[in-house]
Amino acid sequence: MIQSARNVSVWGHSLRAPAMVGASAEGYIQPMNNATIASSASSLPSRRLGGAGIATVLTGLALCFIGARFLVVPGAAAAGFGVPLTGLAAYAVAKGVRDLSFGGLLVAFPLLGERRAAALTLLLGAVIPVVDGAIVLAWRGAHPGYLAVHWGTAVLCVALGALQLRRRA
Known about the structure:
Layout: E1 2-10, E2 13-20, E3 30-31, H1 34-42, H2 50-72, H3 74-81, H4 89-111, H5 115-125, H6 127-140, H7 144-166
Antiparallel strand pairs: 1-2, 1-3
Helix pairs in contact: 2-3, 2-4, 2-7, 4-5, 5-7, 6-7
């Protein structure tokens, strides 16, 4: 039944497949040539980070650090956030897991070449530091240091998200 093996392309991946006698898979599997390889390679996401990608990864790593700090030393992390724990250990765990997850996305998307996903995560995620700042404002009042950190982070997220969208792949 098997006549010979040949190189084929399946969804952009180069495979070596047996050619079957009497079977035609031409509608599903096309023979590979240099043009097919070049076009499938160009459809893959770009792995180059660029300045905005590097800044996004660094922002994600910083957020992972903040999240881990909330899980390891919740009292100190909460004081740095601007709202002390005061017996609310669940707040520290929720904040830690949230920041670790969000930071992980900001690290993973640029490294995987998913520039638009990173941009969307940054732009939609900018709501988080805005709300964090509002929580600090409600708890402490207008404390410029804490508000600058939270709302400055929101501005950074919007700026990096916009840069990720403007960057050419």
